[in-house]
Amino acid sequence: MGHTAQISNRGGRWRLYVTLPGPVSRWPEHDFGPTPTVPTPAERSRALAGLGFVFTEGAEWEWREYSETLDDDTSPVRLLASVRVCSRGGGAA
């Protein structure tokens, strides 16, 4: 079963999390701490492994930008990346 992992930045901190069925409070997450740069693909991969997930075959990070304030093209831009993952054991996490 596949899931979506996402990474985003808020307040100068990059946070990676895996979206699972159920409440957001139960989603596994990794906080990279304050950093001025985007965590590298290797750092993201290690963080996912630490949460018990691996990339699905052929999966690649897809980046999107969105306005902090909906429908306001003068508001700051935020970045969000997503990738398909599965639990290391291949089953649901």
Brief account:
The chain is mainly beta. The protein is 12% helix and 45% strand.
How large is the radius of gyration?
A: 14 Å
Distance between the termini: 9 Å
Q: Give, in order, the helices and strands.
A: EEEHEEE
What is the total tally of β strands?
6
Q: Helical content, roughly? A: 10-25%
Which SSEs are present, and which pair or pack?
Layout: E1 2-10, E2 13-19, E3 29-34, H1 41-51, E4 53-55, E5 62-67, E6 77-87
Antiparallel strand pairs: 1-2, 1-6, 2-3, 4-6, 5-6
Task: Please tell me about this protein's structure.
The chain is mainly beta. The protein is 12% helix and 45% strand. It has one helix at 41-51; strands at 2-10, 13-19, 29-34, 53-55, 62-67, 77-87. Strands 1, 2, 3, 4, 5 and 6 form a six-stranded antiparallel beta sheet that branches. The longest helix has 11 residues, at 41-51. The protein is globular, with a radius of gyration of 14 Å.
Keyphrases for this structure?
1 helix; 6 strands; mainly beta; 93 residues; single chain
